[in-house]
Amino acid sequence: MAEIRKDEAVDATPNVTEVDVVDAATEDAAVVALDKRVDRGEPILQVRNLKKHFPLTQGVLFKRQIGAVKAVDGVSFDLYQGETLGIVGESGCGKSTVAKLLMNLERATAGEVFYKGQDITKLSGRALKAVRRNIQMVFQDPYTSLNPRMTVGDIIGETFDIHPESAPKGDRRRRVQDLLDVVGLNPEYINRYPHQFSGGQRQRIGIARGLALNPEVIICDEPVSALDVSVQAQVINLMEKLQDEFDLSYIFIAHDLSIVRHISDRVGVMYLGKIAEIGTDVQIYDHPTHPYTQALLSAVPVPDPDSRDHRERIILTGDVPSPANPPSGCSFRTRCWKAQDKCAQEAPLLAIPERFKGADGPAAHESACHFAEEKDVVHAA
Ligand SMILES: Nc1ncnc2c1ncn2[C@@H]1O[C@H](COP(=O)(O)OP(=O)(O)OP(=O)(O)O)[C@@H](O)[C@H]1O
Ligand code: SF4
Ligand SMILES: [Mg+2]
Predict the structure, then answer these.
(1) Cα(93)–Cα(285) distance, rounded to whole angstroms?
(2) Which of 97, 225, 253 to mutate to test the pocket of ligand 1 (most atoms within 8 A of CB)?
(3) What is the pLDDT of residues 95-120, one digit of tens each?
């Protein structure tokens, strides 16, 4: 099984993208263990057939709709208490739109997001505000997501102004200092401005703001993409520590497949507004069955020269189609080397492929492909 070593000390992790291959004999046990870990209790979030179609309009005075950008087009998944679900995919595939829909920052065109059984896409006003306390977001860019004219104390404390019931007025300064301490910043920095911090420190402030209301779910949209590799490792390690401490559930969105594997229990791969494949980190990274996932993984840099020389590199041809005019049938068919007639006629469902059902092996996970099969793109020798 390929596994990422989770280093204890922040500075001992110079590069979180390093992959450490360990005993292959333990693979099946590890898959079973992972399944058990994510299979506990009711999901905290249940996303069902979620869609966001942005209207395309023409005309100045009399606007008329001439089409729609299908940014998210039927996404379904569950998030369990205490787990991290990674979401990966190329730029423009709809990751940030999914994040905004989960927070109800964008209104869904169709579908549901159940938080502990309650559909939050139908909520507004006070009911929505109450739910939002429990679902917070950490944004990509710590430079633009913090108001440069506010002190750190005001940035984090603002959360308590929006939800005054969460902290009595006289207690807020102490609460902000506690939060700074929790994310590894000196509580005396409370009166400093964002420009007086490094990028990594600013992202810690963003995380402290996300934690202020004791949420249960944190949606992280590319939280480390704007940071140096060594600082990425520190922020990732901090997030893992906070997850254990506060039993947080994360949705972790990123481009970098290695970082996503490092932090995630399960991973969903998105393509053109849909989930192509979803499973545990072992299932997706070591036993991918969808051609798109296989192509993405074949492009990940491998530190070991031997593996690098032997493995197969899948080069995808053609551009990503426009989400305003996706291909018929399987949306990946215009770039898929395995495409056949059926792929143009019938959209594949995200399900465990028939041939793997009952096999109970790591290939038995959900994959939206008519011809799903394993391909050893990472360890080919
Ligand atoms: N408000 C909007 N109006 C119209 N189209 C939009 C809007 N927001 C996003 N889109 C389109 O929806 C698609 C998905 O965008 P989104 O930002 O969710 O992608 P992403 O996967 O987060 O990309 P990236 O990795 O670059 O952040 C893109 O084609 C984008 O242009
Ligand atoms: S359904 Fe067809 S086009 Fe789509 S990924 Fe599978 S083989 Fe490729
Ligand atoms: Mg995005």
Answers:
(1) 20
(2) 97
(3) 999 999 999 999 999 999 999 889 99
Copy the structure tokens of residue 30.
């590890």
Phi then psi dihedrals of residue 66, to 5 deg: -110, 0
Q: Walk across the sheet containing 249-253 and list its strands.
A: 135-138, 217-221, 249-253, 84-88, 266-271, 274-280, 366-367
pTM metric for this prediction:
0.87
Q: Which CATH number fits domain 3-57+68-264: 3.40.50.150, 3.90.650.10, 3.40.1190.20, 3.40.50.300?
A: 3.40.50.300
- For residue range 306-364, what is the model confidence (pLDDT) as tens digits? 766 677 788 888 889 999 999 999 999 999 999 999 999 999 999 999 989 887 789 99
Say how many Å lie between the CA of residue 93 and the centre of ligand 3: 8
Residue 190 falls in which region: left (phi positive, over 0), alpha (psi -120 to 50) or beta: alpha
Atom of ligand 1 nearest to the CA of 93: 21
